Amino acid sequence: LRSDCPLMDGWGIVTDLEGGVEILMDADPADVSVVQALARCHNATMAVQGLDAFDSCPLAVRGLAIDATAGADGGVVVLRLTTTDTSLLDELRRRAHAMTSPMPAAEAAP
After folding, report:
1. How many CB atoms are located within 10 Å of the residue 68 CB?
2. By the 8 A CB rule, do 84 and 26 touch?
3. pTM for this structure?
4. pLDDT tens across 54-96, in order?
């Protein structure tokens, strides 16, 4: 599953937001629906196999809402992972920050 993880392919800048995180991914905005479908499929597959077995993946948080949109400046996909379960919020954020890599300075938005 790790080789198919939608978070492992794109660079990510993680920002905490109310109820979760937002991850800026270096992906073609035309691929928004693909990124969203991959993230949701990945989450569903892990749920079937048992989320507890994937204790480092932010997509393996119970009750996760997954949404992807094109970034306002183009050239990125914004992946939002949120939960209404406040007891899981810190864990979601910890996993997201640990699993993503900062975008190289030359590619980061000013």
Report:
1. 24
2. no
3. 0.82
4. 888 899 999 999 999 998 877 788 999 999 999 999 999 999 9
Contacts 24+ apart (CB under 8 A), 34-43: 35/6, 35/68, 35/77, 35/79, 36/66, 36/67, 36/68, 36/79, 38/4, 38/6, 39/6, 39/7, 39/66, 39/68, 39/79, 39/81, 40/66, 42/1, 42/4, 42/5, 42/6
Please return the burial class of 84, using the count of CB atoms within 10 Å of its CB with bins 0-12, 13-18 and 19+. exposed
Please check whether residue 103 is in contact with residue 12, taking contact to mean a CB–CB distance below 8 angstroms: yes
3-state DSSP call for residue 50? Answer: coil
* Nearest-angstrom CA–CA distance, 19 and 65: 10
Token reading at 108: 């980061």
Residue 40, classed as helix, strand or coil, is helix
- Do the beta carbons of residue 39 and residue 6 sit within 8 Å? yes
